[in-house]
Amino acid sequence: MKTTPNIKRARIIYAAIFVILLAVEILIGMYVHDSFVRPYIGDMLVVILLWAAVRMIIPYEIVWLSGAIYIFSVIVELTQLIPLVDFLKIENRLIRVIMGTSFAYADLFAYAAGCAVTAVIDLVLFRKRKKIYDVQNIQNGVAP
Prior knowledge:
Helix content is 76%, strand content 0%. The protein has 144 residues and is mainly α. The longest helix has 35 residues, at 105-139. The radius of gyration is 18 Å and the shape is elongated.
């Protein structure tokens, strides 16, 4: 696909979202030690962070992206039942934090909430883009 100024702009926006959410996640991980923000808001934001990372690379319409991110998140969460990081003898703290060390059903709901947010954003953005393209095509004499 040809890279247009709109695609470049979208990538910059997704990159900004990614960087902001990464900073928020790091701050939550370092300074928040409560029973709500860190476990639930942090998990909700991490799937939005993943979504932004994929959207940086592929800013085009992918209707199943939120679902794919949810499935990925569930698989990562299910590996915590084993626990995989202990089985693989992973000692690196960062990798242990990323992969997680304890399973919680509530995390699945937090991931679902984050993916619902991304699905709504995609729905709104892609409908808006379609309307813009339809107007441009009409102005150029091309049927939508």
